[in-house]
Amino acid sequence: MLKTILRHGCRLRSVVNMRLSAPLCNNIHTLTPSNVQANGQIWPHVFVSRRTRMLDQFVKDAGQMRTPPPLTPRDIESRVLRICNEYDKIQEANKNKITLETHFMNDLGLDSLDHVEIIVALENEFGFEIPDADYDKLYTVGNVVDYLIKKMNVTDRPKTTVSSAPDPRYDDHHH
Amino acid sequence: MSLTTRLPQTLKQVRPVLSTDHAEAKRRVLNLYKIWLRQIPYIRVDYIKNNWTETRLRDAIKENFMRNKDVTDLRVIDLLVVRGQMDFVETAEIWRQQHNTATMDRRKDTYKKKPFGFLERFYEGH
Questions:
Q1: Is the domain defined by A73-151 classed in CATH 1.10.1200.10?
Q2: A51 partner at 20 to 30 Å CA-CA among A1, A44, B35, B54?
Q3: How far apart are CA B114 and CA B110, in angstroms?
Q4: Where in chain A is CATH 1.10.1200.10?
Q5: Does A113 contact B33 at a Cβ distance shorter than 8 Å?
Q6: What's the pTM value of the predicted model, to 2 decimals?
Q7: How far is residue A23 CA from its own chain's centroid?
Q8: pLDDT, tens digit (0-9, with 9 covering 90-100), for A89-140
Q9: Contacts of residue A112 in chain B, CB cutoff 8 Å?
């Protein structure tokens, strides 16, 4: 009987091995069959494969639950300044002279096409599209920063995870 | 009394092609410029034989826009924008071939600035 179980387990071992996740793959390099545990106990391959599947799922879930740290207004400001400094027409003369009060056209001498280029660079950096009605609000660096902060709902202090007060952003759903 | 003051108001108005004022025309031009900018990486891949750098392509596109920088007539601007959109579709769908695309970065002014002095206008036949 034991012989049968062992043979059965060995026959399906390759299938089980394919399901092993990366951290569990170390078992493959040792020459023991995968249904033999570290303490020498033999588990049916059904248990092993089910456990492997669950572990894989846990790893996947943990990866999805990881969130990036929240943005602060200072982050946005530094990113906008970096984009403006990287833009080659600004780089020629005015590198590192850019402040929040710098006006793209009056101070830097850019035309409206250059302005569009900067806006496209901003869109690529922050990952959303800026509608063309808002272009004339974005003539100074400070205006750009304020606009992005408003658009992306960035707040200075991190939100508390547990709070009895309802989130004001979701008010629309309750009323 | 000059001709413009004698003409009735209804005769002076022309039917707009697309835009009714300069702000709208400008918006159309900027939008067109934006979609060209967005297309740059794809143009580089689609027309890989032209061996453009990203900067060169951007300058070429800007050159093509700046060729018509002196145009002020709304209807002309609209027609140029429509032509630019058709050019864009041709480029994006890879209907162009190598030499056809290469003409994009040839420096050539299509619009001749109007002479403003009396004699210059006389020489030009105005």
A1: yes
A2: A1
A3: 12
A4: 73-151
A5: yes
A6: 0.62
A7: 23
A8: 777 766 667 888 888 888 888 889 999 999 999 999 888 889 888 898 899 9
A9: 26, 30
